[in-house]
Amino acid sequence: MVKREVLASEGSVMVVKVELDKDFHGDEDKHVEEQVSYIEKGSVEFEVAGEKRVLHEGDVQYIPSNAPHRVNVIESCTILDVFTPVRKDLLDGK
After folding, report:
1. How is domain 2-89 classified at the architecture level of CATH?
2. What are the pLDDT digits (tens) for 52-80?
3. Short-list 89, 35, 90, 32, CA closest to 66
4. Which of 7, 47, 50, 81 has its CA 20 to 30 A from that of 18?
């Protein structure tokens, strides 16, 4: 399960709360917006541009513009994603 909630979208910055269930495996994603992901709860493996890293509560992952990335959830998690500029596709609910 993936649950997204846009918490803020002001100027050129967007904050999105993402909740993911244990054992969720995300498809590869790639977008022009820079992204910073803060792990609020749980643990997740991020793969960014071919490099894997396990993150736990309190850890942060930076994802550069156009870097291919994906997540594999180890323990149900809540992630706060910050994007710049704003991801208009998330505002449209896509």
Report:
1. Sandwich (2.60)
2. 999 999 999 999 999 999 999 999 999 99
3. 32
4. 50
Amino acid at position 68, single letter: P
Q: Which two tokens stand for residue 63?
A: 């994802």
Give DSSP secondary structure letters for 8-54: EEETTEEEEEEEE-TT-BPPPB--SSEEEEEEEEEEEEEEETTEEEE
Tokens encoding 19: 């909740």
Judge if the upstream peptide bond of residue 68 is cis by omega within 30 degrees of 0.
no
Q: pLDDT tens, 15-31?
A: 999 999 999 999 999 99
Tell me the pTM: 0.93
Domain extents in the chain? 2-89
What CA–CA distances, in Å, run from 54 to 30, 32, 38, 39? 19, 24, 12, 11
Tell me how far apart the alpha carbons of residues 84 and 55 are, in angstroms, rounded to a whole number. Answer: 22
